[in-house]
Amino acid sequence: MKRRDFLKSTVATAAVSAGGVPAPAIWSSAKAQSRAETLLIVSESGPNNLDIHGVGTNVPGYEASWNCYDRLISHEMKEGPNGVPYYDRDKFKPELAEDMNVGDMSATFKLKKNAVFHDGTPVTAKDVKWSLDRAVTVGGFPTFQMKAGSLEKPEQFVVVDDRTIRVDFIRKDRLTIPDLAVIVPCVVNSELVKKHATAEDPWGLEYTKQNVAGSGAYKIAKWTPGVDVTFERNEAWTGGPMPKVRRVIWRVVPSAGNRRALLERGDADISYDLPNKDFVELKNDGKLSIVSTPYSNGIQYIGMNVTKPPFDNVKVRQAVAYALPYQKIMDAVMFGLSKPMFGAAADAPTEVAWPQAHKYNTDLAKARQLLAEAGYPNGFETTISFDLGFAGINEPLCVLAQESLQQIGVKTTINKVPGANWRTELNKKEMPLFTNVFSGWLDYPEYFFFWCYDGQNSVFNTMSYQNPAMDKLIAGARAAAATGDKPTYDKDVRGFVDLAFADAPRVPLFQPYVNVAMQKNVSGYQYWFHRRLDYRALVKA
Amino acid sequence: MLKTIGDRILTTIPALIGVVLVSFLLTRVLPGDTAAYFAGPAATPQAIAEVKAKLGLDKPLPEQFAKYVVDLAHGDLGQSLTTGQPVLADLTSRLPASAELTLFGLILSLVIAIPLGVVAAVRQGSAVDHICRVVVTAGVSLPVFFTGLILVYVFYFILQWSPAPLGRIDVFATTPPTVTGFYLIDSLVVGDYEAFRSALSQMLLPGVTLAIFSLAPIARITRASMISALSAEFTRTAKASGLSPRRVIVTYALRNALLPVVTTLGMVFSFLLGANVLVEKVFAWPGVGSYAVEALIASDFAPVQGFVLAMAIIYVVLNLLIDLAYGVIDPRVRMSS
Fold first, then answer.
1. Beta bridge partners of A87
2. B19-34: per-residue pLDDT in tens?
């Protein structure tokens, strides 16, 4: 530290002697104070849009939206699997609303009296309706996410009076209320945005891309795209207890090595996208607090295209399931930082939960036998594809899988797909064998299965798996959940989990962890379904 | 003189047209699909088609190209999808960052490489010559990201001499108001010495990284052209006339040896400006190189085209400047033109 100060002063002196003007003597104390009140977050990439309703808003943009906008309701916290606060799927708390009244076919929300937007105008039911209308009509991801909770038409949102809004249900759906607490249904300052709307852009997306028009706990003081975002606390926030951190600076540091160095040196306060190896080493080192939480409703898996030989044969799929090197992947790729989704005890009952472990294990003899029964005693050749955007995990994973499949005679060529092209490839549904991750914001088994296994063949049903028996079970569980018919629900959930494992169109490998590294003096981290940071709860001592 | 410049600019027009066409075509044959990438994780084929239509990517190529050229003529380079900003704004804010760093690195490199090359040429086979060879080989064979990371590790992580590698200026320092876009100059203009100090200390490590890399071509060319200049007849005449060694080397040999050095310098500069992507990544430097690469990864066409075009223009301007510098250094060039 002393040497550093020395160098600083030397350089400063040099500058001074060059310029001939005395240097201010007070900078370090002023800087130290602002440092203590500021939380410095470093991550690989920053937002490209501050509005989640925008076209192509990236995931870092969701974090900006979450902290700068309010929703009608949010989730309570409970204690999570690792003792860290974890959002409670079933308990809601008011945010902009002070009261929620759920009836049979509608829910009514009463807005807080003193809630105001950042520009000081009060939040009214009109703003809420405009914002929800916007979410269900702009198209793309926000509209899709609203639809997941049966929120589809502007007519569903009714202004009762200035402070009361009613959401009508178009059908009974257990996911409607939870869907009002995700990031998308944020409340936007409609008058402000309308001023900037044009005929081509009726929802003012260009304006909200660059500017926050919300009532949330943080305002954006400065945003340099691709470099940093500075958040300032909104002193007039009414959505909850006043956040402790006055200022948050989110700086983009592309090199993972440097993010780690910054943390270890104490220059950065939080980082959450480091390679697993770094997290394990930091954890063992003990200088920082490292929190690892399994993704809610998320799984990394090996998928197989069931529409084409050889993977149209269930025995081939089961053979692959017995040939995958599960434990090696856990140890060598994930460094233990993930939850195994394989090798459940043979007599373990199927639970009414998702994700849960399947009963396959690495058993090459059994795999060979299944392959012979399927008519491929000498194996076959195929390609295994992965998304280069997540090469850190995907590449070693595929190499291990390749090595293991080789031993049962399945020769694979590895196909690396650039990140920009991955979704196009998934949409084509032609890759025979691949690894991918899916995770849903709404943590319900039937939600996961509806997107990933249902015969409607959505983009997430990457295997093109279509089975009427499966569809019936999923529909049954959804209907039972909406009416609260627990016995039927439990039976159907167990049914579709069993069927998914027996038919094995995709083989779950593990449940990834969200890893967050923080300085010891930073506390209050909460796990949210969106897996991004909630600045409102963070505390810097 | 003016006519020379005018003629030179005229000859660059076909080259620029070529650059516009090629950069447009190249970005279109990239394998990625912009629309699918930006339609988000939950995109249905219909949503992708909507995004495609919004971005105008559903139109035939000639039509897209015509629109691109018309926009270009109006000074509109399009929108970047990765940063959400107009490409022109991105480039104007990022180009000074790259240029400042590159210039700084290059000056650092010149200060070391030219004397090193001169001494190595004057004392061929001496210890200095060998040191020159070792330094140059090491510099060129160490990949920049490696040198960068090692420097960060040693000077930031272990020794704590250098500030955190967090871009152009300390996170808590205020950015100087933009005059030239060069923080070192801007901070001096407004007399903000704290910002100057911060910007300078942020720039030292990446500057040194670039300098180490660019030492090699400059030192080698200096040495080679000095050797030939020293063995030339005019040098022998100068020596025979009893001029001081200093005068012989600096005034006669070096000035004559500078032409190839200046040529190399121009090439090294324009090469570094675009190619210091890795240095920018390591030091979180908000420059154009990392900008272009990020856009490329996301199949984001507009920034890539804008970047290529900007680089082409810079290259053309640099070459023009170098040609003019020839005339200053060597009157023969001036006369022959």
1. A77
2. 888 888 888 777 667 7
Residue A271: its H or E element: strand A270-271
The whole-model pTM stands at 0.84
Compute the distance between CA of residue A224 and CA of residue A251 in angstroms, rounded to an integer.
10
Looking at the structure of chain B, the number of domains it has is: 1
The token pair at B233 is 């007849």
* Assigned domain for B180 exists: yes
Length of chain A equals 541
Asked if A135 and A146 count as a contact pair (C-beta separation under 8 A), the reply is yes
Residues of A in contact with B282 (CB under 8 A): 255, 257-258
Count of A-B CB contacts under 8 Å: 181
Give A103→chain B minimum CA distance, Å.
Answer: 30
Both structure tokens of A520: 């010891």
pLDDT of residue B41: 61
- Domain A3-10+35-253+519-540 top-level CATH class: alpha beta
pLDDT tens profile A61-88: 999 999 999 999 999 999 988 888 999 9
Nearby residues of B74 by Cβ (< 8 Å), 6 or more positions away: none
* Tokens coding A448: 């996961």
Residue carrying the six token digits 């200049």: B229
Asked if ipTM goes beyond 0.85, one says no
Give pLDDT tens digits for A176-205.
999 999 999 999 999 999 999 998 889 998
- The reply to whether residue B171 touches residue A255, judged by beta carbons under 8 angstroms, is no
What integer pLDDT is reported at residue B309 of this predicted model? 87
CATH (residue range A298-514): 3.10.105.10
CATH number at residue B238: 1.10.3720.10
Chain A contact present for B158, CB below 8 A: no
The DSSP H or E segment spanning A298 is strand A298-304
Pair A31, B221: CB distance under 8 Å: no
Q: Measure Cα distances from B272 to A242, B210, B265 in Å.
A: 48, 8, 10
Question: Residue A231, Cβ neighbours under 10 Å: how many?
Answer: 28
CB contact under 8 A, A48 and B83: yes
Mind listing the pLDDT tens digit for each residue in A150-163? Answer: 999 999 999 999 99
- Residues of chain B with pLDDT > 70, as a percent, come to 95
Cβ atoms of residues B269 and B106 within 8 Å? yes
Least confident of A184-198, A299-313, A408-422: A408-422
